[in-house]
Design a protein that fits this description.
The structure is a single chain. The protein is mostly beta strands. It has 3 domains: about 375 residues, YVTN repeat-like/Quinoprotein amine dehydrogenase (Methylamine Dehydrogenase, Chain H); about 90 residues, Sandwich (Immunoglobulin-like); about 240 residues, Jelly Rolls (Sandwich), CATH 2.60.120.200. About 0% of the residues lie in helices and about 40% in strands. Strands 49, 50, 53, 54, 56, 57, 58, 59 and 63 form a 9-stranded antiparallel sheet that branches. The longest helix is centred in the C-terminal third of the chain and has 9 residues. The protein is elongated.
């Protein structure tokens, strides 16, 4: 499977490196601003629905080490981690360094260093970029007056502080009266909504000398220990308090809460720490070396968003959403590639991970090896997701692969802040900390490739081209130009991702027969347009049209059966071949939807994606040579089988192959079982809501071939298929077990790819032949439908 990857570009401009002093902080000496400093300066936001921050990194100071924690309030972003200095935007490591020991503050709107905030954190052990070090937890009190910090330190400004400290946000001073002591590292801090209590979690076993099993709470006013004391048998990575103060959620790598088995996440009483009802959890899945843990919890309104890291093959590493009130699951995204950090901003969930396999996620991408000479897999470190169902959005910047992925995220309500061990963002230098902000959309879609054009009907040119992607936007508009003209003759719209670019068609009708033309296209996000594509090869417009209609063309090649699926009522799908091989409409089908053949009033059938099925009335032997043919239209992002052969007439077959199905991202797969799996997969996607024509063939000598929209997509030398008897089925059948083509075969949730075995969409004109159609006959069938031309 092929993924087309593009990172957003970042422009370099000349500007002065600046240091900001907030008016409420007493000014102190700051490094002089230097002109001529190259900075990352493009400011943009996507124009897609709800998109609110750019994929282009905004100018900001950097760190010389890993950032493990972020918090933002009052126009300031606080940055904690394992670094010992910070430097201006664009400066390489070792240049312009300003000492900051594990904690710094930047202006949230400009990214400039706030010079007067300079606490001296001490007692930190040796730092490793992949192990939490220095300041690993930050949060600001609800009134914005106090910054709480936690980590593995033992001193601040020369005063003893055992892993916890508080700072006055107006002055930057250490709060001398607040000094609770933890016996070990603190990973998370969360204040109560009214600010009276501060909840902490980590790897400690005592708080103020009193036993606390990795979670405890203290008074915000005095630091005195409270009664909140859940009993956990593993490290706590995340603590979050419900907005109504009804419960406190804790997440980590524990498997027991208050003596009762509970994996990775729990809900507790905010006063005592006693367990509250909580349904959603990471399903324990523990092959050798597998440990699944919660890394981050963000509560927005009535929903908690939870991220996970799984250590070991197939462990759950995605994220999920659950109701705060009872833990009822809202959605689950099964992307593999440890999700370290999440943030909610203006209707989107942003995630930091090293997502490499999202084949289990609706609309997600399959795992693909990195291009040589690199090793490993293509990874996406920054993504966004729908709050409604967890599906992937269209925000696709990226950081370099020096770490598992970004370790921290925060927002002040407008900007998105990202921290980690990265050294580049979108292939431009930016270490440790990145800032993404709203602004005009300055990104542009990629340049499309040259279209391909054919003419098989009189006065009609068929223009075909592959969509491109944009790092901010999903739906793009493609303008089509003829003969180098400056004014487009038409436009079409399509939605794409870097990993899912559909194949688009345009029918240029009414051109003069015998004339010659070239075509080119551009892509626009509504604000910026790509460069015009290279011109197509010259095509001469046909003076004649195909002699036969589509149906007559199909019947001339003597199919075993031909189901137009054009009935308006009844349960019988008639066979137009004359062979009497009828089908049966099962529940979940809707007859009478518009069909695929231009100028033909014949209809097609809609399938609901759950149970919709047309199955053969009679059982037959699985053929050793065949062609499967049909038209389909879908916008589904959960995949499903279009046409196939199975041992059961309804329900889930025990044997099933000779099938064509959609993967979650819209790729098509043709598969045959012959003492093992043999498949052909399309590099492009076809779930764009338009009609597409598919033919899959098996020849005992030539092997397998797959055609889409009249073009040969690929071949496979396998020339046989498992002998068993069964039923031809349209709309769905089992794809479990061996037909899970994902690298891992299964994950912690036991799901397989695609998510659905039944397809949601429209299907028409299904035929099966007892031999392999030639490429010429496939082209002739496609040409007989004027829609494709």
């Amino acid at each position: 499977m092929k993924i087309r990857v593009r990172s957003g570009c970042v422009a370099l401009v000349l500007a002065a490196a600046t240091v900001t002093v907030l008016p409420s902080l007493q000014a102190s000496a700051a490094p002089a601003a230097r002109t001529g400093q190259a900075v990352l300066a493009a400011r943009a936001s996507g124009s897609g629905p709800g998109q609110n921050v750019s994929s282009v990194v905004a100018p900001s100071w950097q760190t010389n080490g890993t950032v493990w924690a972020l918090a933002s309030a009052n126009g300031v972003v606080y940055v904690g981690g394992g670094f010992t200095s910070v430097r201006p935007p664009g400066d390489p490591l070792g240049t312009g360094e300003v000492p900051r020991t594990y904690l710094a503050a930047f202006n949230a709107s400009t990214g400039a260093l706030i010079a007067t905030f300079d606490p001296k954190i001490s007692g930190v052990g040796g730092c490793n970029p992949n192990l939490p070090c220095g300041v690993t937890a930050l949060t600001v009190s609800p009134d914005g007056r106090t910054l709480y910090a936690g980590g593995d330190f033992t001193g601040v400004n020369g005063s003893y502080r055992a892993h916890l400290a508080a700072f006055d946000t107006s002055t930057g001073a250490l709060v001398s009266s607040w000094k609770p002591a933890a016996s070990g590292v603190v990973h998370s801090i969360a204040p109560a909504p009214n600010g009276s209590t501060v909840y902490v979690g980590g790897g400690f076993t005592k708080l103020d000398g009193v036993a606390r099993a990795r979670a405890g709470a203290v008074s915000a006013a005095t630091g005195a220990l409270t009664a909140w004391a859940p009993q956990l048998n593993g490290v706590v990575n995340a603590v979050a308090v419900a907005p109504d103060d009804s419960r406190v959620l804790v997440g980590g790598d524990f498997t027991s809460v208050n003596g009762v088995p509970q994996n990775a996440i729990a809900s507790t009483n905010p006063a005592t720490g006693a367990s509250e009802p909580w349904a959603a959890t990471i399903v324990p899945y523990r092959p050798p070396g597998c440990i699944a843990q919660v890394k981050d919890i963000v509560i927005s309104g009535t929903v908690a968003y939870i991220s996970s890291e799984g250590t070991g093959a197939g462990c759950f590493d995605g994220d999920f959403a659950a109701r705060v009130s009872d833990g009822g699951l809202v959605w689950q995204n099964d992307c593999l590639g440890a999700t370290q950090a999440i943030a909610v901003l203006n209707g989107w969930l942003y995630k930091g991970s090293h997502a490499h396999d999202c084949a289990y996620a609706p609309g997600g991408f399959p795992q693909v090896a990195s291009p040589a000479p690199a090793h490993g897999w293509i990874t996406h470190h920054l993504l966004d997701q729908s709050l409604t169902d967890g599906s992937l959005g269209h925000w696709t910047p990226n950081t370099d692969n020096t770490d598992l992925g970004p370790r921290a995220m925060a927002t002040g309500g407008q900007e998105l802040f990202v921290g980690g061990a990265f050294t580049t963002v979108n292939n431009r230098p930016q270490q440790g900390f990145a800032r993404f902000e709203p602004g005009p959309d300055t990104t542009a879609p990629k340049r499309p490739a040259a279209p391909t054009v054919i003419s098989t009907s009189a006065g009609v040119d068929s223009v075909t081209f592959t969509a491109v992607s944009d790092p901010d936007d999903g739906t793009l508009t493609y303008a089509i130009y003829r003969d180098g003209g400056r004014t487009p003759i038409a436009s079409v719209k399509a939605t794409s991702w870097p990993w899912a670019e559909p194949v688009l068609h345009y029918r240029d009708a009414g051109v003069k027969p015998g004339s010659a033309h070239t075509y080119a296209v551009t892509a626009s996000d509504g604000t910026s347009a790509s460069a015009k594509s290279p011109a197509s090869a010259t095509v001469t417009v046909s003076s004649t049209s195909p002699a036969r209609s589509y149906s007559r063309t199909v019947l001339a090649d003597k199919p075993s059966f031909f189901w137009p699926l054009n009935e308006h009522s009844g349960t019988t799908a008639h066979d137009s071949s004359g062979n009497g091989f009828t089908g049966i409409y099962e529940p979940g089908t809707t007859q009478g939807v518009p069909g695929p053949i231009t100028g033909d009033p014949a209809t097609a059938t809609a399938f609901d994606g759950h149970s919709g099925l047309v199955t053969s009335a009679g059982r037959v032997a699985g053929p050793g040579a065949f062609s499967i043919e049909g038209w389909f239209k879908t916008s589904s992002n959960t995949g499903g089988k279009l046409i196939g052969f199975g041992s059961s007439q309804t329900g889930m077959s025990l044997s099933y192959d000779r099938h064509v199905y959609l993967m979650n991202d819209g790729q098509l797969v043709f598969g045959v079982f012959n003492h093992g799996l043999f498949t052909i997969e399309t590099p492009r996607v076809y779930n764009d809501g338009h009609w597409h024509y598919v033919v899959a063939t098996l020849d005992p000598k030539a092997g397998m071939a797959l055609y889409v929209d009249g073009q040969l997509i690929g071949t496979n030398p396998n020339a046989g298929a498992e002998p068993y008897s069964g039923y031809w089925r349209v709309g769905g059948d089992s794809l479990k077990g061996l037909w899970n083509l994902d690298y891992w075969k299964t994950n912690s949730q036991g799901t397989t790819e695609p998510n659905s075995y039944y397809v949601s969409g429209d299907i028409g004109d299904v035929a099966v032949y007892p031999y392999a159609l030639s490429a010429a006959r496939v082209a002739a069938h496609y040409a007989a439908n004027a829609l494709s031309h």
